[in-house]
Each structure stands twice: as structure tokens, then as C-alpha cells.
Design goal:
Blueprint lengths: L3 E11 L4 E7 L11 E6 L10 E2 L9 E5 L4 H5 L8 E8 L10 E7 L4 H10 L7 E8 L2 H14 L5 E7 L8 H7 L7 E5 L2 H13 L7 E3 L6
Helix pairs in contact: 2-3
Length: about 220
């Protein structure tokens, strides 16, 4: 049973491809770990239904941030969200977090599945030490690319981290075969995957077929437990 938290919308930025929302707490700030997700209910006509969204802010931030790609009717309506709208937050949920991995990690994101990594990379920026990370990002629109660019900028500052982008408008889909050509020690790495469910399930099977232990594969399926 989760606790509900009350926020108000402070800023809204919509590019047409990604909607960025910052919220400030009305009273108590929600405690969470980077990589988790919430169910926000925006108290505005037509927007009160709830959907899961990963947070892009880090736990120590004073504001709670989301980045949402308009994929369906509800997320498209979010572009009409008004400043000052009250938000009821249900959560946090999930356990998708880099702390579950070891010193070598492979992060894989597909499209808007990049969002939990934005939260994790911001938290890692405050750490004195961090794992070696190979980040793979598969996308097919400019809005997602913009979010990936933020990850690339941060990862490029660290000697033990690398960023690889795959624009599927011009190249084939990301595969474990492609990843293994770059990251040569997959069997000693923890694998994190977030993206469309078909992509998650396909890559999971490919990694297992390559000999990666199932317990070393961490998936974000937006399940409550």
C-alpha cells in the first residue's frame, strides 16, 4: 500500500515530441530511488486517469520531473496541462536501479524507455565512485534523441563510461550481436533494459542464449512489485 503525495505543476515544456513536466511538493516530498516510477493523477478535466511514468529527477532534487512522449490519447492531452494544476502522486514503485548491479554494467534503452536512466545518471553524478557503464540507446524520433543527448553529455565526462546511439530510421534494430561487438565482457556484466515490451523480451532471450545469467538481467516492466 503506497502513500499519496500532493504536488503542483510548476513548469511545462512541450516540443510536440516530448512533454517535460516539473512539479513542486505542496507539503511532504515523495521519497524514492532513481529509476523508480509513479502514477500521477493531474487534477484537471480529462487528465485525472493514472498511467505509470519514470521520474527523470534525482531523489535529492527539490522538484519532481517527468519526460513523456505523446503516444496515445491521454499522453497527447498532457500538452494542455495547466500551470498550477494539483497532482496526486501514487508511488513510488519498482526496483530498477543501478545499485542492484556490480562494477560493470550495460544499460539499454529503447525510445522513451531512456527516462529512468536520466534519473540514475543524475544520482551517479553525485557519487564519488561509479560502475563502468556502456549505454546503448535505440530511438527513432528527434524528441527521444534529445533525451539521449543529455545522457551522452553526462556519460562522456566519465572515463569508464561509454554511450552508443542507434537511430533506427537509418540503421537496423539493436541486437545482442551488435552489443557484443562493443562490450566484450557481457558474462561479467549486469544488464539493464527499459523500452517497449517487445524489445525487452527479445533482448532478454538473446542475452540468455549468449550465456548471461538471468539474475544479471534487470528489466523495467512497470510492475508494482
Amino acid at each position: 500500500v503506497s502513500k499519496k503525495y500532493r504536488y503542483t505543476v510548476e513548469t511545462i515544456e512541450s516540443s510536440g515530441e516530448v512533454i517535460k513536466i516539473d512539479m513542486k511538493p505542496i507539503d511532504e516530498k515523495i521519497p524514492y530511488t532513481s529509476g523508480q516510477f509513479i502514477f500521477p493523477s493531474f487534477q484537471q478535466e480529462g487528465l485525472k486517469e493514472t498511467h505509470p511514468f519514470s521520474m527523470t529527477s534525482k531523489p535529492s532534487d527539490s522538484r519532481l520531473s517527468l519526460a513523456i512522449r505523446p503516444l496515445g490519447d491521454y499522453t497527447r492531452r498532457l500538452s494542455g496541462l495547466s500551470f498550477g494544476t494539483e497532482v496526486t502522486i501514487d508511488g513510488p514503485y519498482g526496483g530498477f536501479n543501478y545499485r542492484k548491479g556490480g562494477n560493470k554494467q550495460v544499460w539499454i534503452a529503447g525510445g522513451i524507455g531512456v527516462t529512468p536512466y536520466l534519473s540514475m545518471i543524475k544520482e551517479l553524478s553525485d557519487e564519488s565512485s561509479r560502475p563502468a557503464i556502456d549505454m546503448y540507446f535505440s530511438y527513432r524520433n528527434d524528441g527521444d534523441k534529445e533525451l539521449g543527448d543529455e545522457l551522452e553529455n553526462r556519460l562522456s565526462e566519465w572515463d569508464n563510461c561509454n554511450y552508443y546511439a542507434f537511430d533506427t530510421r537509418s540503421v537496423s534494430r539493436l541486437s545482442v550481436e551488435k552489443i557484443s561487438e562493443i562490450s566484450h565482457d557481457l558474462l561479467a556484466s549486469d544488464i539493464f533494459i527499459c523500452g517497449p515490451m517487445a524489445m525487452i523480451e527479445d533482448l532478454e532471450k538473446q542475452f540468455i542464449n549468449q550465456g548471461v545469467k538471468r539474475e544479471n538481467i534487470h528489466l523495467e516492466r512497470f510492475k508494482l512489485l
